[in-house]
Amino acid sequence: MAREKAGRQANGRSTIYEGNDGYWHGRVTVGVRPDGHPDRRHVMSRHKSVVAEKVRDLEQSRNTGSLLKPGEKWTVEEWLTHWLENIAAPFVKVNTLAGYRVAVNHHLIPGVGNHKLTELRPEHLEKLYQDMLLKRTKGGTLTKPATAHQVHRTVRTALNEAVRRGYLAKNPATLARTQRIDSDEVEPYNVDEIQRLFRTATQTRNGARWAIALALGLRQGEALGLKWSDVDFRTQTLAIRRGRLRPQYEHGCAGKCDRKYAGYCPQRVQTRPETDTTKSRAGRRYVGLPDSLSDLLKEHRAKQNQERLQAGQIWEDGDWLFATPTGAPLNPRTDWGQWKRLLKDAGIRDGRLHDARHTAATVLLLLGVSEQTMMGLMGWSNPAMAQRYAHMADPIRRDIATRVGGLLWGDQARASAK
Prior knowledge:
Elements: E1 15-18, E2 24-32, E3 38-45, H1 48-64, H2 76-88, H3 94-112, H4 122-134, H5 145-164, H6 191-201, H7 208-216, H8 220-224, E4 231-232, E5 237-240, E6 242-244, E7 249-250, E8 269-270, E9 275-277, E10 285-288, H9 291-311, H10 332-346, H11 355-366, H12 371-378, H13 384-389, H14 394-409, H15 411-417
Antiparallel strand pairs: 1-2, 2-3, 4-5, 5-10, 6-9, 7-8
Helix pairs in contact: 2-3, 2-5, 3-4, 3-5, 4-5, 6-7, 6-10, 7-9, 7-11, 14-15
């Protein structure tokens, strides 16, 4: 039987021909490979009609953009690893990347990594989230729903990129459901508690640190990332430009020190920079210093200068506003422990360090500061954050009740409210 030879086609045109092997072959140009050469796909069958149908399918997939790219029939593990190291790592902030790594390496790859990327379903992710909530952490507590939400946000972001690049037609993570988070209602510290904390803080090193937290509402990283060059005593303003990062280390002893954690290695090597830019563009801001806080910072600077003289040659001159007795930047873990001791010494109920930020936002609400101004002072980019941080304190409730009573019942209500 005479063979049908494949004639030379114009660039990009598909070809169908019968080969000497007895099979019909089809070749379709669907794009360009990463190395710049044409991406020409090959299909074959003993029947010409089958090859013709496969060629039409390839052409349709090419034209609609739903075709998988060459050599990249990813598993979920392969895609997540590629996305993490080559797409996310060069562009996202250090803390964001650290969160991605935990979600990918500790949860997603062990849980759904063996699935083919194109065969991942919402149910696979939902099962992973449910299994996570049944596991206990190293501390013995059950995994919190917030952790599952973090994993969900990470995989949704990674798969959105796969869709954008044509490796997936749809993102299954957008359909997967996570358990609802019942957020605990934060009870901000009242004015009396704040003043007690201020009085106690004056007896400690870096006591101005807590005045800044409670009065200005800076995030922990923002406060620990402050330098003296950020303080302008003439205008009484404070510039927030950076955030302190949690230190991260590697062993510098080639494993000879027998220490499990690199942070305890005598020759440890720090692998993470001291600071990074603020959490968002809105986080880069200027805030005014109350007179009392400005005076407190001047006293703090005088005490730090004394420590500098005592430390002599071992002083690390990093210009840090809040430093160790030798001038080094404060470790966020140490800072957290000092906050807990401050609460105990002041006889104040226990609370998170971040509750100081909630307290500052509530003070602004008490003062009647507008939402737009509050966003600028707190470094928020989303108006919804005001609802999350500024809490309805008792004085606000009483003020609203008095106003409503005055409007509806007049003088009688005002007299009874006094």
